[in-house]
């Protein structure tokens, strides 16, 4: 596994590359407020057959923060990523937010996407599920210790592995000057106005 960075659309993006560069490319897109390392176990399982590329979306992981977190911007980022690496017809796996980005990417670039796998996302979001997710997001602030986050990760997953828990701590948090731990993602991701689609006067 290699940590790499690439400049796209005025931002610096972090991604992880696994496997042989000559193998068929497989792009992995993580969920909301997650990170590329979420795919580590899956990437290890797939890297013998694919060149696995797991991106940190804008505002997530080690990628730059931005002013705009709309779906269209995220779709454009992945399209630019494919072009910058000069990838042939790719397979894409997207989870949650990444799944939504993936199927809009496929709709806009049908000749570039050979295979598409959608995980935990349908055409529409259940309102009750959206409220539950929003409540969980707004409850995430800072924490006193890594142990506190480890306990939360174990409670949130039915069968958490040690790697799941470790990734939760290692890649989602960063230390603050006062010794407390804060989330690595951009706090503005919680602001719905930063994620709204662009305004279309023709529809008004």
Entry summary:
The protein has 7 helices and 9 strands, in the order E-E-E-H-E-H-E-H-E-H-E-H-H-E-E-H. It is an alpha/beta fold. It has one domain (about 1-120, about 140-195): 3-Layer(aba) Sandwich (Rossmann fold), CATH 3.40.50.
Q: Mind explaining what this structure looks like?
A:
- The protein has 204 residues and is an alpha/beta fold.
- It has one domain: Rossmann fold (3-Layer(aba) Sandwich).
- 35% of the residues lie in helices and 23% in strands.
- The protein contains seven helices and nine strands.
- Strands 1-2-4-3-5-6 form a six-stranded mixed sheet, with helices on both faces. Strands 7-9-8 form a three-stranded antiparallel sheet.
- A hairpin with a 5-residue loop joins strand 8 (173-175) and strand 9 (181-183).
- Helix 2 crosses helix 3 and helix 5 crosses helix 6.
- The longest helix is centred in the middle third of the chain and has 14 residues, at 71-84.
- The chain is globular.
Tell me the fraction of residues in β-strands, as a range: 15-25%
**Total helical segments:** 7
Question: What does the largest sheet look like?
Answer: 6 strands, mixed
Instruction: Using the alpha-carbon principal axes, give the shape.
Output: globular
Write down how many β-strands occur, each being a DSSP E stretch of 2 or more residues.
9
Low-confidence stretches: 198-204
Q: What structural class do you assign from the helix and strand content?
A: alpha/beta
Mean pLDDT: 84
CATH homologous superfamily heading:
Alpha/Beta hydrolase fold, catalytic domain
- What strand order characterises the main sheet? 1-2-4-3-5-6
In the CATH hierarchy, the architecture is: 3-Layer(aba) Sandwich
In CATH, the topology is named Rossmann fold
- The ordered string of helix (H) and strand (E) elements is EEEHEHEHEHEHHEEH
Rg, please?
Answer: 17 Å
Helix content: 25-40%
CATH classification class:
Alpha Beta
Overall number of structural domains: 1
Q: Please report the distance between the alpha carbons of the first and last residues.
A: 48 Å
């Amino acid at each position: 596994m290699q940590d790499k960075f690439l400049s796209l659309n005025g931002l610096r993006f972090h991604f992880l590359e696994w496997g042989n560069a000559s193998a068929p490319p497989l792009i992995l897109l993580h969920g909301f407020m997650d990170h590329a390392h979420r795919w580590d176990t899956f990437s290890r399982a797939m890297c013998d057959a694919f060149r696995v590329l797991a991106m940190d979306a804008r505002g997530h992981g080690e990628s730059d923060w931005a002013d705009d977190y709309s779906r269209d911007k995220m779709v454009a980022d992945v399209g630019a990523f494919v072009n910058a690496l000069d990838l042939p017809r790719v397979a894409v796996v997207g989870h949650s937010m990444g799944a939504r980005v993936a199927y809009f990417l496929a709709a806009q670039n049908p000749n570039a996407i050979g295979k598409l796998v959608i995980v935990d996302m349908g055409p529409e979001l259940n309102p009750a599920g959206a409220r539950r997710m929003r409540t969980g997001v707004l409850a995430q602030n800072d924490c006193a210790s890594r142990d506190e986050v480890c306990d939360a990760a174990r409670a949130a997953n039915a069968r958490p592995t040690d790697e799941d828990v470790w990734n939760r701590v290692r890649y989602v948090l960063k230390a603050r000057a006062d010794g407390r731990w804060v989330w690595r993602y951009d706090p503005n991701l919680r602001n719905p106005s930063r994620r709204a689609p662009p305004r279309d006067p023709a529809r008004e």
